User: Fold this.
Amino acid sequence: MSSKLRAVCAVGLALIVGLAGCGKPKAKPEAANNKRTIVFVFKLVGIPYSNACQKGAVQAAKDLGINVEFTGPAKGGDVAGQIRIIENQISRGVDAIVISPNDPNSVKPVIDKAMAKGVKVFTWDSDAPDTKRIFYVAAADDVGIGSDIMDQLAKDMGGKGKVGIMSGSQGALNLNQHVDGVYKALKKYPDIKLAKPILYNNDQPQLAQSGMSGLLQAHPDLGGIACVSSPGPPGAARAVIASGKTGKVKIWGLSLPSENRRYLKDGVVNGLILWDPGKLTYLTAKLVNDYLDDVKPTDGMEVENIGKLSVSDDGVIIMPGVVITKENVDQFDF
Assistant:
């Protein structure tokens, strides 16, 4: 082949390669093809409260145009299972993880690990304050809501009698703070005595009912129960109905209106203090998404359909809550 012919062939080959390259653009890095991903890791999935939270996550994904996922262990109090789930999210390289810890101390190493790898970590519903979490979103002052529940209960008990306390997971910081609030308020009522032991239902409805049944047998003169986790009031209500003590044992607690509507209307449950879990999760997703865009929450800021937020120097954000009774329960659809 002559040198002239070789040159012509080389030019032709270069044109073919160049045209092939024009027809097939370079692949983008995988991260650029994905939306921002925020993952909520709850204490337990499959109960009405977590289902309500998940609805807020789904709505946030739609409104914010990002991926918002909701997950958690399938059984209550599963500390190891929750940590495994968080580890998986770190391995995936998601943008942010929002945790409601089963145990605040147990998640400290995994939060450290996530932050070191550039995965931002936040808490909501329950806090892990002595960690590197960026901020905590709550629907109430965790001690104050326990005190409010006890104050309402004491009023309905006429300031005297014997009262029990029911919580969920024994290691959850927010629930332990709710219990601390109940104890704090109890000091104001010298004629109200505590019926021991404290009941822990691990956020399981059946354990809430059976635990209450046992407390009623141990204390036939029980006058009331302060419940600081969602399955508590309906579980206590079923036990009170079965024992024939409707109206004699007052029930106040933290729970969903949908779980208690008929018990409230029938006078078995006296009242609830809560917030909309869907709105709490939606708000958290919005605040986290804003933070990832370098927009930080500020004290007194107004959020549409939520209200005015309280933001403290230690990174605790509180949204307004509500008192739910038979008179207003039909106003709530969660």
Q: What stands out?
A: Residues 58 and 68 are 7 Å apart (CA to CA).
